[in-house]
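Please complete every field before forwarding. Incomplete forms are returned to the sender.

SECTION A: IDENTIFIERS
Entry label: holo-219
Bound molecule: S-adenosylmethionine
Molecule representation: SMILES string

SECTION B: INPUTS
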Amino acid sequence: MRKLKPKSYDYIEKLAPLETELMQEARKNSEKLGLETISISATEAGLIKYHLQSVQAKKVVEIGTLTGLSALHVLSVLPDGGKLWTLEKSEEHAKLAELVLKDEIQNNRCEILIGDAREKLKELNSQAPFDAVFIDGNKAAYLDYFNWAYENVREGGMILVDNIFLAGAVWGGKTSQNFNAKQIRTVQDMNEKAFSDKKLISVIVPTEEGLLVCKKQSS
Ligand SMILES: C[S@@+](CC[C@H](N)C(=O)[O-])C[C@H]1O[C@@H](n2cnc3c(N)ncnc32)[C@H](O)[C@@H]1O
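SECTION C: PREDICTED COMPLEX
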């Protein structure tokens, strides 16, 4: 959860293209829910799009839709024939996301799956392999999401995970946010797997929240 956007983000966002009207609407909707600080920043969205394009991502899964802001960013770099499956537990959030994603849904470029992501991911097994998975849902389930992504991303594909610093809790920092021991251990285990698994090339981009980027190598 972001407190204040760093000044560097303001500078980067002046250089980068403006967010579209739909993206701004999605941002306003998360503000109305009091959740603007958990929406992705335009700077982080730029990093995610850069990595998706670097693997020519066409089929992408997102875990944690909120109001559809990051989904719109992802869709903006998918080519013709591309598709995003985005998973969200809250019906209220999913309804708001539908408002900004309706054209993409109608054009069969986007599907929102409502329910607990661990369950909903099982429904996507038959559509695998995917080119990329972006994880931004329930922190206590990050390792399960990551293991699913590891199995269901193609070789040469990418796994991206946001908030992997847990505001400093992963290195024992004191935070004003209440992460419980299970959430902290889960994210630490996932980060350790990302760097110890020989099939993955992993980096952590030291954004304010920490963005884990893993590329799955060919055998
Ligand atoms: C950090 S927000 C996602 C922000 C969004 N990716 C964006 O940047 O626009 C996390 C979202 O995950 C959802 N979520 C939490 N637990 C979940 C679960 N078990 N399954 C699916 N979604 C979940 C929350 O309701 C919330 O909307």
